[in-house]
Design goal:
Blueprint: E1 4-6, E2 12-15, H1 22-29, E3 34-47, E4 54-70, H2 74-84, E5 88-94, E6 100-106, H3 117-138
Helix pairs in contact: 1-3
């Protein structure tokens, strides 16, 4: 539990934060890939200091809830890797149902509490999607 390996191959992508929102995916990818609910025991989706988005961290007592996105093209995967940036490391984790999926592991300090997905959706999503739109226009 809570163990990951460096990412290789084209597993599905476990999304636990902003990438689970269709509004963000439409801006970044121009579409919403297929997604199914998933959980990963041994991981937590933590709030980050001064950020509206979360980070996935190993946590022996945690359960990360999210979605598994499938059907990404290689170009879409590269775009998402660039979007997530150097503060995240793509790894492969094992989900509770036994599937393996890529996930973005946060590499810096976090808050000691879970990220509030409902609060993000209610208070931050619109402005975040606007920021993604600007990032996408600049990405080449």
């Amino acid at each position: 539990m809570g163990r990951g390996v460096r990412c290789a191959g084209m597993e599905g992508l476990f999304v636990y934060g902003t990438l689970r929102f269709p509004e963000v995916l439409r801006v970044l990818l121009g579409r919403v890939p297929d997604m199914r609910p998933a959980t990963a025991t041994g991981w937590s989706v933590r709030a980050l200091p001064g950020k509206v988005y979360p980070g996935l961290v190993a946590d022996p007592d945690g359960v990360a809830r999210g979605l598994v996105m499938t059907g990404l093209t290689e170009d879409e995967r590269r775009l998402l890797d660039a979007f997530e940036g150097d503060s995240y490391e793509p790894i492969v984790i094992t989900l509770d149902d036994g599937r393996r999926a890529r996930a973005y592991l946060w590499k810096a300090p976090t808050e000691p509490y879970e990220w509030d997905v409902e609060r993000f959706a209610r208070e931050e999503l619109s402005a975040f999607a606007d920021g993604c739109r600007m990032w996408r226009r600049a990405f080449t």
